[in-house]
């Protein structure tokens, strides 16, 4: 059976890649060492997610023997990766999902409102900011630069948030920052934890215009290192790290609202895979031409004091400052000893 028959044209038109690019991809992997194969596989992760077990023999003869096992593991890992439909099945504390949070008519009205306003173009998507601008360079906001109140067309959403399930009486439910993201088909979001020092505990995200999968990743204590005090982001295509993390995913249909709070906000990376087809159980659900999310947050007025210190830039910064101070203090006696000999040294 030829590759042309196996990799049918319809499949690649949905996924968004050409048959020629797949042939070129696998031909470059012939006789490569396992490390090179894994690197190439990670870059083309979305290709492997579309393959079935019947294609594996074709793939296998193109790979170096040391890379075949890794390729098979990666293919089946994504094909059979479970996707929850309910937050209760997801099993992450602080994650809640409400289906049909808004009506179809409300969805159309919200989309019309943002389409009549000015978009800001990023490399792969468009955004709008209200209340405070989100600074992607630092993954933070300028709390001194207030853009004004949130637009009136979301007032109904803000009111409904007050009665959202999972909220305690003492939790601040007054949102003052809104980011609208427009994702074209096939575009996702890199894994990240929203910067602790930027926002309060509650993060609400409303999906409109199209569905997607949101994946959550949790690192065991001691295996993840905070990259900087302001950037809490990793690269999503790192297969060799996958054995050290817990992966869970949930399907976000249009008009659903997800709440990330507590552990689900502070300790789990969340991301949206870059693909044009999502696998949910045995179904392959194609993404729409675009997906527009409305993410509501509350700007934090002081440092974060959450119990997840490993992921908290506020507490890491304080700890780093304390370490620097301790180093300075501990070095002072050494300097005095170096330039001021003791009585014993004088003898």
UniProtKB/TrEMBL annotation:
<dbReference type="InterPro" id="IPR027450">
    <property type="entry name" value="AlkB-like"/>
</dbReference>
<dbReference type="InterPro" id="IPR005123">
    <property type="entry name" value="Oxoglu/Fe-dep_dioxygenase_dom"/>
</dbReference>
<dbReference type="GO" id="GO:0070988">
    <property type="term" value="P:demethylation"/>
</dbReference>
<dbReference type="InterPro" id="IPR037151">
    <property type="entry name" value="AlkB-like_sf"/>
</dbReference>
<protein>
    <submittedName>
        <fullName>(wild Malaysian banana) hypothetical protein</fullName>
    </submittedName>
</protein>
<comment type="similarity">
    <text>Belongs to the alkB family.</text>
</comment>
<dbReference type="Pfam" id="PF13532">
    <property type="entry name" value="2OG-FeII_Oxy_2"/>
</dbReference>
<feature type="domain" description="Fe2OG dioxygenase">
    <location>
        <begin position="174"/>
        <end position="300"/>
    </location>
</feature>
<dbReference type="InterPro" id="IPR032857">
    <property type="entry name" value="ALKBH4"/>
</dbReference>
């Amino acid at each position: 059976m030829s590759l042309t028959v196996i990799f049918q044209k319809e499949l690649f038109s949905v996924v968004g890649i050409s048959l020629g690019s797949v042939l070129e991809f696998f031909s470059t992997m012939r006789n490569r060492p396992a490390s090179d194969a894994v690197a190439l596989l990670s870059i083309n992760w979305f290709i492997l997610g579309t393959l079935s077990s019947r294609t594996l023999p074709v793939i296998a003869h193109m790979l170096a023997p040391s890379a075949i096992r890794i390729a098979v593991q990666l293919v089946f890992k994504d094909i059979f990766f479970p996707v929850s439909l309910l937050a209760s099945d997801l099993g992450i504390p602080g994650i809640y999902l409400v289906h049909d949070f808004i009506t179809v008519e409300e969805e159309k009205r919200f989309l019309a409102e943002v389409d009549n306003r000015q978009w800001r173009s990023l490399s792969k998507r468009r955004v709008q900011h209200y209340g405070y601008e989100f600074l992607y360079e630092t993954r933070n906001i300028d709390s001194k630069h207030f853009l004004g109140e949130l637009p009136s067309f979301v007032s109904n959403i803000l009111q409904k948030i007050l009665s959202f399930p999972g909220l305690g009486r003492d939790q601040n439910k007054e949102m003052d920052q809104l980011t609208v993201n427009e994702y074209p088909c096939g575009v996702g979001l890199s894994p990240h934890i929203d910067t602790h020092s930027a926002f309060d505990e509650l993060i609400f995200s409303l999906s409109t215009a199209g569905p997607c999968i949101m994946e959550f990743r949790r690192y065991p204590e001691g295996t993840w290192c905070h990259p900087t005090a302001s950037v809490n982001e990793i690269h999503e295509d790192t297969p060799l790290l996958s054995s050290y993390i817990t992966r869970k995913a949930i399907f976000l249909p249009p008009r659903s609202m997800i709440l990330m709070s507590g552990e689900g906000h502070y300790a789990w990376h969340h991301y949206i895979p870059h693909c044009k087809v999502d696998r949910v159980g045995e179904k392959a659900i194609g993404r729409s031409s675009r997906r527009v999310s409305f993410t509501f947050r509350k700007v934090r007025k002081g440092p974060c004091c959450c119990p997840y210190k490993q992921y908290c830039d506020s507490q890491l910064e304080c700890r780093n400052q304390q370490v620097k101070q301790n180093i300075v203090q501990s070095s002072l006696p050494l300097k005095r000893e170096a330039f001021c000999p003791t009585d014993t040294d004088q003898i």
